Amino acid sequence: MTHQFPSLSEAQKRELHDTALRIVSKGKGILAADESVGSMAKRLAQVGVENTEENRRQYRQILFSADDRINCCIGGVIFFHETLYQHSDNGVPFVKMIRDRGILVGIKVDKGVVPLPGTHGETTTQGLDGLSERCMQYKKDGAAFAKWRCVLKISDTNPSNLAISDNANVLARYSSICQQHGIVPIIEPEVLSDGDHDLKRCQYVTEKVLAAVYKAMSDHHVYLEGTLLKPNMVTPGHSCPTKYSPEEVAMATVSALRRTVPPAVPGVAFLSGGQSEEEASVHLNAINNCPLAKPWIMTFSFGRALQASALRAWRGHKENEKTATEHFIKRAEVNNLACQGKYTGGDNYGESGQRVYGSCHAY
Amino acid sequence: MTHQFPSLSPEQKKELSDIAQRIVAPGKGILAADESTGTMGKRLQNIKVENNEENRRSFRDLLFSADASLSNSIGGVIFFHETLYQKSDGGKLFPKVIKDQGIVVGIKVDKGTAALNGTDAETTTQGLDGLSERCAQYKKDGCDFAKWRCVLKISDGCPSPLSISENANVLARYASICQQNGLVPIVEPEILPDGDHDLKRCQYVTEKVLAAVYKALSDHHVYLEGTLLKPNMVTAGHSCPTRFTPQQVAMATVTALRRTVPAAVPGICFLSGGQSEEEASVNLNAINQVPLHRPWKLTFSYGRALQASALAAWQGKAANKKAAQDAFFSRAKINGLASKGEYKPSGSADQASTQSLYTASYVY
């Protein structure tokens, strides 16, 4: 506890920090295209498409062949392992397609959730075995950052102390290993929105979870300037009877982060969870307009919230590809505005009226 | 861990937040005038003045009436218990003298260090017994903030994990109790500069200590927006053979704080430790010029670094009162400027030339 055994050289720190800043540079966020084979099955089933390797390749191609309009909107793309080694119809590796336009390549490195025995249905995340060697290989294969998702849920008994501490610990181990290989770890402690809890409850739990995450980061000697955080926004549970405005969601979210995320963290890239494309953008916009001081960049790392329309437009038909790509570009451009607080559109906002954020002391 | 049992109403939170903001309003810092009787003894002995109640009163009176515009540089004054119930030469209670100038009154509430058995002479701090009742009384008697000092040291085996966790825990308990009684807690985890360790070592230890402090504050449900932090600057040990510039001290300090102190904390008020008056001002100034984003106010909570010249000028003699007041007021103004990064010591390089000293290749 008293002597430092430096794990990163100055040059390594500089590389990690620069990478993190590039991913979240002004107006940019992350396309989370790292759905596992199992998750893709769910997505493709919804549009009546068979879950084959070829269909997954075709689908990702729709996203990756978006034109230069996305260059100012997307700073990084998270890949699933399979996709990292796939090519376009013209034989161009996807990694090359992405990197050639100045977008950074990321890789999902966790191996999914496993139960925590003795808890009420809670999980931790596996994937640490051989992670160091895998990171080394991914770095050679073009990845500059990684992602690892932990999952916590709110119920009468959850999250338990064990779930909070074990997930924080495993996120810190993963981060520490990534940094040794020049890979920026995206830290994702997702608090699920399942349940009927209100906004306050989600805020409270999010604060406790993030406090534990950053204590673990400190204990594991993780270089914070070379990391990114991918948290949930603070929202009520899906079955909560009370409705909250985007400004209330924003205040609760920013308050929670201000109380827990050290200013040294360069950026916070929100997950969209179960939110619709528009909901996620409107919330991100409100977050960026929240009057509380925010020392980190606040942007997006969206999966469904960038892809839902594109997927529905495609439905597996080649003739729909261009339209599908257009839908993706549109969401990318909307989120480019939202992460700068400049998005004035939105289903429920006809006029850009005065947004009422209310008193921060109620949070 | 999953359900909140709110301990503060929105009104209580607002009151605490407002008090904290007033103390660290732009250009202002804290006068730490809370030396215990024993500590005042040491100060007075240096100028060969007897350590009696009247002399202690007389010196504080001199400070508190130093100048009509004292409140431009001083946002809060920390009192020792005895002083809270003493009066000015004009017969006015000291808390009123301070409050009438628009300055916030604070009170030291800890009861000194106590040994941590089984460690290498490390300590924790006592004072939790009956603290709630004491805070309620202090609030009635005019106080709006409190201070509690924990002490850690750097050596081959220190600080130990126990020392870090025990001091963090006791600071969090103190903070939680203060807030229940409308007092803003100043959280002071001082890491002593004794030793020959270098700047890096102090930075590393400071980061570990502060990470533990803020985890404990979270565990104890403390409302961060209604607290202040009083840390050491990150400096090399007193006997370290290497000299470091104010810019290096500033970079190491701000980096350590950015890695550990949440943006919700309104202000960080550095202790001066063993630094001279000028050193403390120059370092604070450099801290406020560091080209990294600093989401909290960075100001002073100085004892010796505000009072040393005043004490030396006073010598315990009434005839020297004005000279002593001028000396103190001068340091107050200088530190007010330093808290905005606007202090230009005469004869020193201007901002442009010192700016280049920050772009060192060293990554902290």
From TrEMBL, chain A:
A GO BP entry: glycolytic process
Involved pathway(s): Carbohydrate degradation; glycolysis; D-glyceraldehyde 3-phosphate and glycerone phosphate from D-glucose: step 4/4
E.C. code: 4.1.2.13
Keywords: Glycolysis, Lyase, Schiff base
Reactions catalysed: beta-D-fructose 1,6-bisphosphate = D-glyceraldehyde 3-phosphate + dihydroxyacetone phosphate
Top-level lineage group: Eukaryota
Annotated transmembrane regions: none
Record-level Gene Ontology MF annotations: fructose-bisphosphate aldolase activity
Similarity comment text for this entry: Belongs to the class I fructose-bisphosphate aldolase family.
Protein name: Fructose-bisphosphate aldolase
TrEMBL record, chain B:
Catalytic reaction list: beta-D-fructose 1,6-bisphosphate = D-glyceraldehyde 3-phosphate + dihydroxyacetone phosphate
Keyword Lyase: yes
Keyword rRNA-binding listed: no
Similarity comment: family membership: Belongs to the class I fructose-bisphosphate aldolase family.
Keywords: Glycolysis, Lyase, Schiff base
PROSITE patterns referenced in this protein's UniProt entry, alphabetically: ALDOLASE_CLASS_I (PS00158)
Stretch forming the signal peptide: none
Pathway, per record: Carbohydrate degradation; glycolysis; D-glyceraldehyde 3-phosphate and glycerone phosphate from D-glucose: step 4/4
Name of protein: Fructose-bisphosphate aldolase
Annotated InterPro entries: Aldolase_I_AS (IPR029768), Aldolase_TIM (IPR013785), FBA_I (IPR000741)
